[in-house]
């Protein structure tokens, strides 16, 4: 049986492959089961996939201490790597956020990622809206087509 995680990660990878650019995808399970490294001709990106199986907006994502450690490990093992969170909003799409975008909505009083929760919402045919800790809203919306263009 195909798990939700396999199904939704597969959909994200299909979009990445369909860009038509030469890429290499490496799973990094020793760092975290949902981290992948994507290398293109111009960039190396570390991607943490998070999934929500909620069928409708708003989708909630909580970052754990394990993910905080994994991101630090990824960045120390691969100097210069750019980090992204690919938030898979069930069958709606993938909201791709850079590390800077995450920092913009996280509570700066807490550990970088651990225990931080963000909410992603989208109206029909619109872009993704991001709300972070203490209802901090990210200034810009995230277009539906940001994934996978941002990571390559």
Explain this structure to me?
- The chain is built from four helices and eight strands; from the N terminus they run αββββαββαββα.
- With 152 residues, the protein is of the alpha+beta class.
- It has a five-stranded mixed sheet with strand order 1-2-3-5-6. A three-stranded antiparallel sheet has the order 4-7-8, with no helix packed on it.
- Strand 2 and strand 3 form a beta hairpin.
- The chain has one domain (4-149): Trna Endonuclease, Chain: A, domain 1.
How would you summarize this macromolecular structure in one to three sentences?
This protein has 152 residues and is an alpha+beta fold.
Number of extended strands: 8
Total individual domains = 1
Q: Supply the number of helical segments.
A: 4
Biggest β-sheet: strands ordered side by side in the sheet = 1-2-3-5-6
Query: How helical, in percent, are the residues?
Result: 25-40%
Main beta sheet, described?
5 strands, mixed
Unreliable stretches, pLDDT < 50, 5 or more residues?
none
Q: In percent terms, what proportion of residues is strand?
A: 25-35%
CATH topology: Trna Endonuclease, Chain: A, domain 1
Tell me the series of helices and strands, N- to C-terminal: HEEEEHEEHEEH
- By CATH reckoning, the class would read Alpha Beta
Summarize the SSE layout with pairings.
Elements: H1 4-17, E1 24-27, E2 35-39, E3 44-52, E4 59-62, H2 65-77, E5 82-89, E6 93-98, H3 99-105, E7 117-122, E8 128-131, H4 146-149
Parallel strand pairs: 3-5
Antiparallel strand pairs: 1-2, 2-3, 4-7, 5-6, 7-8
């Amino acid at each position: 049986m195909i798990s939700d995680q396999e199904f939704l990660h597969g959909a994200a990878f299909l979009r990445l492959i369909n860009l038509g650019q030469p890429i290499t995808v490496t799973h990094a399970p020793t760092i975290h089961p949902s981290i992948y490294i994507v290398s293109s001709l111009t960039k190396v990106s570390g991607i943490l996939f998070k999934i929500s199986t909620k069928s409708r907006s708003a989708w909630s994502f909580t970052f754990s201490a394990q993910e905080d450690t994994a991101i630090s490990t990824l960045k120390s093992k691969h100097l210069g790597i750019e980090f992204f969170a690919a938030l898979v909003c069930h069958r709606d799409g993938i909201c791709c956020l850079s590390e800077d975008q995450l920092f913009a909505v996280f509570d700066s009083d807490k550990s970088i990622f651990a225990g931080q929760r963000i909410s992603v919402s989208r109206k029909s045919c619109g872009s993704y809206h991001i709300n972070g800790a203490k209802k901090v809203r990210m200034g810009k919306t995230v277009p539906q087509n940001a994934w996978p263009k941002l990571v390559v």
